[in-house]
Amino acid sequence: MYNFGVPVQLKTWFDYVLQAGRTFRYTASGPEGLVKGKRAILLIATGSVYSEGPTAKADFMVPHLKQLLAFIGITDVTVVRAEGLAFGPDAAKAGLEKAAAEIRTLKTA
């Protein structure tokens, strides 16, 4: 997360991927995603904790990414967070270990 949002490199990638006629199409009832039956896993790293508590309202990145993915038809989204990385070495280690443990539990398709 950079300044509560998506890093520019990831935003640029989505700008290339979201293409009318390729990953979505316009219909009479609105846009329709063409990338269906896919799963996305978001690996999120943050200095603070944004999954809960008072800072949760400042997490603009995860909802934005979920919206972009849903726009192209990907609605099966799992979020894995490595949080509190700026709270010192012990907190960073705990945050990374928690995320790694979550990753190990994910089932592959």
UniProtKB/TrEMBL annotation:
Residues 1-105 form the Flavodoxin-like fold domain. InterPro entries: Flavodoxin_fold, Flavoprotein-like_sf, FMN-dep_NADH:Q_OxRdtase_AzoR1. Pfam families: Flavodoxin_2. It comes from the Bacteria. PANTHER family: FMN-DEPENDENT NADH-AZOREDUCTASE 1, FMN-DEPENDENT NADH:QUINONE OXIDOREDUCTASE. This is Acyl carrier protein phosphodiesterase. It comes from Cupriavidus basilensis OR16.
